[in-house]
Amino acid sequence: MRRVSIAVCGALILIPLTPTRPAAAAPPGMPTVVEAINELALLTVADEEHDDTYGRNLFPHWSTVSGTCNTREEVLKRDGQNVVVNDSCTAVSGTWVSPYDGGVWTAASDIDIDHMVALKEAWRSGAHAWSPAQRRAFANSLGDTQLWAVTDHVNQAKGDKDPSDWKPPLAGFHCDYARSWIDVKHDWQLTLQEEEKEALEEMLATCTPAG
Fold first, then answer.
1. Are 76 and 141 in contact (CB under 8 A)?
2. Record keywords: Signal included (predicted)?
3. How many domains are there within the chain?
C-alpha cells in the first residue's frame, strides 16, 4: 500500500493511501434515461413463444473479428485495463471490473462475456423468426450495449432470466442495466412481457436526472 508523509508539529507521519479503485467499463451507445424511457414505450408487450425450440447453437457466437481475435477477446480488450494479449489474442494479464457486482479480477478466466439480453430470452422474444445471419450478428454485437464483461458466477446466476426474475447484485447499476436492456430490445425489435416492463420501469426510477 502506498503511503504519503506529512509533517505535524515537526514530526513526520506516514498516512496510508487507499488505492484508487478502477472503474467498470461500459459498451458503446448507452442511451440516456430519456431515450430509454421513450424506447420502452415503443416496445411491444407480448407473451413469449418457442421456448422449447431453443438451442444455443442457433446463435453462433464468438466469431472472428480480426486476425486471430474473436468477439470474446475483443470485449476483454475493450472493457479491461492494461490488457496484454499473446500472439493468439488470448488475454494473459489485465484488470477487469464487473459492473454487475463490482468485482475486480486480474484473470480473464474469471470473466464471462454476458449477452445483456440472453440468447434464449431473445429467441422467445422474437429471434426465433430471424435468419441465421441475424442471430449471429446479435450474438456477436459489438456496436451496441449487448455484450458486457462481468464476473463469471454472477453471469451464471443470471442465466436467461429477464429483469422481472433477476437484477444485478449491485443496486447502483440497476439504472444502467435497464437502459441497456431496453436499448437492445428496441434496436433488435424484440418484445417484452408485462412483468418485465414493470421491472424495467422500477429500475429506471433509480436513475438520477442526469442519467
1. no
2. yes
3. 1
Name the CA dihedral angle for 13, 15, 16, 21, rounded to a multiple of 10 degrees: -150
| Residue 10 in domain | no
| In-domain check, residue 40 | yes
63 neighbors 71 (Cβ within 8 angstroms): yes
Could you report the average pLDDT of every consecutive run of 10 residues in the chain (211 residues)? 44 47 81 97 98 97 95 97 96 98 98 98 98 98 97 98 98 98 98 98 90 54
In a domain, 13, yes or no: no
pLDDT of 210 reads 56
Separation between Cα atoms, residue 83 and residue 107, nearest integer Å: 10
Q: Is 15 contained in some domain?
A: no
- Residue 104: give the domain boundaries: 22-204
Q: Any idea which residue has 442519467 for its cell?
A: 211
Are the beta carbons of 39 and 186 closer than 8 angstroms?
A: yes
